[in-house]
Write a structure and sequence with these properties.
151 residues, mainly alpha, 5 helices, two-stranded antiparallel sheet, globular
């Protein structure tokens, strides 16, 4: 698993993002490139703009921690066409360049904040997570969708 907390590997992912163009056709799924970028930005928005989202109640959070967390932060790749949380659904057209810029900025911010910032940091759905879990959450999701678009 690549480590987005390192400058080298963060830039490798950014280079892949820069290979995208708005007309790139996905190899699977329903999103176009601008929607995929917006979808990927949601994970960072949960961290950097949590006020935009409603926190799950105690029962839902228990279920997410117990059944979903290991899938999201485990090292096994996501399956194609997996279901996503309603917060991550992007159904309308987005500005490709704005979403791309935002995603690159989010990756750079994570890398600059570093592992120590994320160690033990609370995730609104999964509770306290290690920096390794945060890295897997960020990288695995990005890698999945960049593969979806062949980059």
């Amino acid at each position: 698993m690549k480590n987005l907390f390192t400058s080298k590997e963060a830039h490798e992912v950014i280079d892949r993002i820069n290979q995208l163009d708005p007309d790139k056709v996905p190899q699977w799924g329903k999103m176009n490139a601008d929607q995929m970028l917006a979808h990927c930005n949601v994970a960072y928005s949960f961290v950097f703009e949590p006020e935009k989202y409603k926190r799950p109640g105690p029962v839902k959070k228990f279920l997410l921690k117990t059944f979903v967390k290991k899938f999201v932060v485990g090292e096994q790749p996501y399956k194609r066409n997996s279901r996503t949380s309603p917060d991550f659904l992007i159904i309308n057209k987005r500005n490709f360049e704005e979403e791309k810029h935002k995603l690159v900025s989010n990756i750079k911010k994570v890398q600059l904040l570093g592992e120590n910032h994320f160690e033990g940091k609370d995730n609104m759905s999964f509770g306290s997570m290690t920096s390794k879990e945060w890295n897997i959450l960020f990288y695995k999701h990005l890698d999945h969708h960049l593969q979806q678009f062949g980059v």
